[in-house]
Task: structure prediction
Amino acid sequence: MANFKGHALPGSFFLLFGLWWSVKYPLRYLSQKVNKKSHRIYCFQRVDAIEGGIKIIFALIGMLAEQFVPDGPHLYLYSGENRDWVKLMNWQHTTMYLFYGLSGVVDVFTYISQVVPQGLDRLMLSVAVFVEGCLFYYHVLHRPMLDQHIHSLLLIAIFSGACSTMLEVFLRDNIVLEMFRAGVTIIQGTWFWQIGVVLFQPWGGLVWDEKDHSNIMFLTMCFFWHWAAAVAILAINYALAYCCIQRCRRGSGEPYIGLGVRQQKRDISSQAAFLNGSDEE
Result:
């Protein structure tokens, strides 16, 4: 959809997934760092399967919205009467949602079947993000300069996410790569909203001058403000996850992160007392 809603809808999907990942991965990493119990790993795998199902639902919603809005193509790709393509922009968005839906299907099959190779879910997600980037690269060719630039900034986050997700195929459960993916997904979500606001002015106001170079400079700076905000969100959610894990461990009486240093000091002091006692004897 070449309007504000067409950018707000995928932006909301990406933002929700990015925020969820920024909470899920620190919780999983910190909980496994303290206590590697098989049933907890199984619980997180079940969460991955549910996440895949939600991804499929979001993809279906996106495809239906792109196809069956009042001015949509309604599954017509080519018009024989007019001898022209029908709403290719909607078809490009539909293709993007299709690949994210396939990624969700692979997520679910990775959970329910042992036959699926480990890492295939990350590979399919990387392919989906890469397809999104290619579609948007050719999405804005021969468009006004401001339109091209604001979408080209989005490509930075998209292809960064595609590369980091591909690395996750070989570096499974790497918290740094997972948090980076969460960050660039948040940026995708907020920047989709930013594109919709700049190009379509949903709440009115002055129209952006598409030929003013100052607007290009501001939007470039604004993009990295979005990046800084995403980093802040990651840091806050990681800290909250850490505090949550610590409080749960203390309440249950299990060992918690940070005890290692104190325990080591106690062991050293007890060894020293034992040696002193031996010397006195």
Strands lie at 78-79, 84-85. The helical segments are 4-34, 38-68, 88-112, 120-137, 145-170, 175-200, 213-252, 259-280. Residues 258-266 have pLDDT under 50 and may be disordered. Residues 261 and 267 are 10 Å apart (CA to CA).
